[in-house]
Amino acid sequence: MDETPNILELEGIVKEFSSVRVLDRVSMSIRQGEIMGLIGENGAGKSTLIKIVTGIYQKTEGTVRLDGKQVNIPDYITAKGLGIGIVPQEFNLINYLTVYENIFLGNERNRGIFLDKSAMRGEARAQLAALKMPLDVDKAVSDLSVAEKQMVEIAKAMVLDARILIFDEPTTTLTAVEVQHLFALMRKLKEQGVTMIFISHKLGEVLSICDRVTVLRDGILVSVDPVADLDTTIMARKMVGRDFSQVFPEKVDSSGKPPILEVENLSCPVLPKDVSFTLRKGEILGFAGLVGAGRTETMEAVMGLRKIEGGTIRLDGKEVRIHHPREAVDHGLAYISEDRQGKGIVMDYDIPKNISLISLKEKYKKRGLIDKAKEAESSEHYIKEFNIVAASKRAALRFFSGGNQQKVYLARWMDTKPRILILDEPTRGIDINAKREIYEFIHRLAEDGISCIIISSEMEEVIGMCDRVYVMREGRIAGCLVKEQVTEENIVFNATGIQKGMKQDG
Predict the structure, then answer these.
(1) pTM score of the predicted model
(2) Sign of the alpha-carbon dihedral angle for 472, 342, 395, 429
């Protein structure tokens, strides 16, 4: 029997919003120096529970104890004072401040009455070096990729010197290599006695890093088990309350089909560099690589979001010039950004407004006025098509789960009737059920002749969905893996440059 004392105890926690109960008498305890996994579908109550622990929400009923003593946590400042820190799922960074300024915001180092900027820069570099992310600490956060912003959030939590650290989906934009760096740091913190809560939809990662796993379903505690008693199938069954079938649909075979998009020697001022690739009609094509490899930048260039210095883009064999996203849309291209909340959905808009944004002028305006009835009819269609779960279609998207936000974002682009759909980290921060629904939808699109490109840091996602995968390294194509070559080992070898000479296939 484990004699390690409990550091955090939650007893009978209830949380209600407008008489709707989202947490129903949840009780759990976490031991000193353990890593506790917290899993459940979107809407299961995970985020609500940790927001109570960090003072962002106030419990309706129940008791919170720290070191055996009852505590009240009215706000996040109090939580920090008690030694509780969090790496949030959605970034809480200020774009116009630098990396080091964001890391120490609210926890500044002083030298007398002045800020000790030299000390903060040095500490920031040390924290990022521990994460194997050697960023320029004087760089503005607005110039960082999503994965780099994630590392800044992690470093920001590290400098708190917290006793309890909560990681809310910290690996959603990180590749396997970056995840291993993070896990190495977490294990080091564990040796130092730091207690951690790890929230993730990646069940394999939960098994890899956690000591025990807590499962929530519909606001109710289902179980707390040692990882030795679990596997991914058991965990998925506990989350959804039933046996869970295969996540990935059968792969689409596009070999022999004509190319719809051909990119040759594409170059931009920074990234990409001399990139060439082809996309076939009805194909699900994968793009893999480490953070900063140039995958997102390549697709932004194709979409007219980046200035192109050289290269050729052909659609159906004809050269096209795309200088603006509107031109890309007119050519039948659609792009789901990896930064869902920053560059995708409008958080304060409802479902109809979000879906109709791109198609508004062509489909919903008549004599200068928006046809609200037509807009509402279209949104109803997509709510059914994507199984979007919402108490009201008129509610702002900030109140939706990550999975439902992503479905609305996808619906907006499908409303443009695209021929090519580019999806950048399409399942970031969404649960296993919503993932499966999105995978099945992408599969149906391919069967209907719509071509899809998936950029993903989830190795399992690329391998499970794609027959052909381009791997990028340092802004260039390092290799193209085909069918049986699409393995984790080959992707890592090409992404890191350890192995050369893989078969190339255009």
Answers:
(1) 0.71
(2) positive
